[in-house]
TrEMBL record:
Alphabetical UniProt keywords: ATP-binding, Cytoplasm, Kinase, Lipid biosynthesis, Lipid metabolism, Magnesium, Metal-binding, Nucleotide-binding, Steroid biosynthesis, Steroid metabolism, Sterol biosynthesis, Sterol metabolism, Transferase
Reactions catalysed: (R)-mevalonate + ATP = (R)-5-phosphomevalonate + ADP + H(+)
Domain GHMP kinase N-terminal, first and last residues per copy: 129-214
Native source species: Musa acuminata subsp. malaccensis
UniProt family annotation: Belongs to the GHMP kinase family. Mevalonate kinase subfamily.
GO cellular component, one term: cytosol
Name of the protein in question: Mevalonate kinase
Pathway per the UniProt entry: Isoprenoid biosynthesis; isopentenyl diphosphate biosynthesis via mevalonate pathway; isopentenyl diphosphate from (R)-mevalonate: step 1/3
Higher taxonomy: Eukaryota, Viridiplantae, Streptophyta, Embryophyta, Tracheophyta
PROSITE patterns with a match to the protein in the record: GHMP_KINASES_ATP
Domain of life per record: Eukaryota
Annotated localization: Cytoplasm
Classification via NCBIfam families: mevalon_kin
Length: 387
């Protein structure tokens, strides 16, 4: 039986998180840290030997879960599979799926995995019904830290399930990593969005879209514009290691918006302008050192303004403020990225910044217990491979 592998990248949001859920423009880029999925469908079990199982192994976490096809059918009713038409998980179905997740006895310390496993069950059973198979997942990304682990998880799962369905017609005899065509990417992206809805509650779709398509995007109300940076943008990512949950943070911003509708509408409008300006500057050519520096200073100013507005939305955190203070000592600008509340912070590393200064900042941040990594912004999106 064929086996497929899929890898989908995480992302950083350069501007516009949260406001994008309320209709503002945002700018995001893929980073070269991936969620990896391998998937195979099992051959039918000979009569009298049970009905096999659907297995999910989370390699990095040392956890494995199994459901028998008969238990899935008993729990969810007759399977209706339409791989070419993404379906939302209704509130009734979510409850039925939650019961199937609960009986797996997930360790209490890892209970945050439940929403991811629920998204897995929805995507799998909607595309392959109750067929027996095995899915193995590993990730380069820190989970639940603002780098889009949930979206890359959903994109890689949706892609691998669709690749072994008849909704995607890639030539399975081709070797190596393959990109999907535009229509197929869109189908994967729409399924991934349905999974992301289970994890985020009310996602904008920016995270799954940048994970599927890669590079850099400007995004508003489900519409994407591909953009390209005129010069390399280097960012330092600092993981505060403070755990948080995107669904709760998104809900918190919506509650603040319903308490202060006019003030928050003004905040979202300001973020919209910042993201549009940022997108223009990122794409504008810089021909010499002076214009490279001027361009980077403008990007820094917009990042600082966006961070101020994220504080207004109530999604900063003491650990984020510590990173801002440390980097400011070195005249560097930072903002939270993703949902905030802890998680990761972005710091622009200007082209002319010496590596000695970068090393000093990293050493100071790491001595406070944070974890730093340097990334080049923009990169490959989803890819699949048949083996
Ligand atoms: N590799 C994985 N294996 C299992 N579950 C995962 C994996 N990656 C993500 N998840 C699910 O996604 C949840 C984290 O999603 P969440 O949206 O809170 O954080 P994030 O996507 O990393 O950050 P952000 O949404 O701010 O970019 C986890 O609690 C888990 O349910
Ligand atoms: C906080 C948020 O804007 C970005 C999370 O990476 C949520 C979303 O857009 O789905
Ligand atoms: Mg997420």
């Amino acid at each position: 039986m064929a086996e497929v592998r899929a890898r989908a990248p995480g992302k950083i949001i350069l501007s516009g998180e949260h406001a994008v859920v309320h209709g503002s423009t945002a700018v995001a880029a893929a980073i070269d840290l991936f969620t990896h999925v391998s998937f195979r469908l099992d051959p039918p079990v000979p009569p009298g030997n049970g009905d096999g199982s659907l297995g999910l192994e989370l390699k990095d976490l040392g956890l494995a879960f199994f459901w028998s096809p008969s238990r899935l059918k008993e729990g969810l009713g007759d399977a209706v599979t339409v791989p070419s038409t993404p379906v939302s998980c209704s509130p009734e179905r979510i409850k039925l799926i939650a019961a199937l997740v609960e009986e797996q006895d997930i360790p209490e310390a890892k209970i945050w995995l439940s929403s991811g496993i629920a998204a897995f069950i929805h995507l799998y059973t909607s595309i392959h019904g109750y067929k027996a198979g095995k899915v193995v997942i590993s990730s380069d990304l820190p989970l639940g830290s603002g780098l889009g682990s949930s979206a890359s998880f959903c994109v890689a799962l949706a892609a691998s399930f669709l690749a072994l369905s008849d909704a995607i017609t890639v030539d399975k005899s081709q070797g190596g990593w393959l990109r999907l065509c535009e229509n197929e990417l869109q189908l994967v992206n729409r399924w991934a969005f349905e999974g992301e809805k289970i994890i985020h509650g009310k996602p904008s779709g920016i995270d799954n879209t940048v994970s599927a398509f890669g590079n850099m995007i400007q995004f508003r109300l489900g519409e994407l514009i591909h953009i390209e940076s005129s010069a390399p943008l280097r960012m330092l990512i600092t993981n505060t290691k403070v755990g948080r949950n995107t669904k709760a943070l998104v809900a918190g911003v919506s509650e603040r918006a319903s308490r202060h509708p006019d003030a928050m509408a003004a905040v979202f409008t300001a973020v919209n302008s910042i993201s549009k300006e940022l997108s223009t500057i990122i794409q504008s050519p810089a021909l010499d050192d002076i214009s490279v520096t001027a361009r980077e200073e403008k990007i820094e100013e917009l990042m600082e303004m966006n961070q101020g507005l994220l504080q207004c939305m109530g999604v900063s955190h003491a650990s984020i403020e510590t990173v801002l203070r440390v980097t400011m000592k070195y005249k560097l600008t930072s903002k939270l990225t993703g949902a905030g509340g802890g998680g990761c912070v972005l710091t622009l590393l200007p082209t002319l910044l010496s590596s000695a200064i970068t090393d000093k900042v990293v050493a100071e941040l790491e001595s406070s217990g944070f974890q730093c990594l340097k990334v080049e912004v923009g990169g490959e999106g989803l890819q699949i491979c048949f083996s």
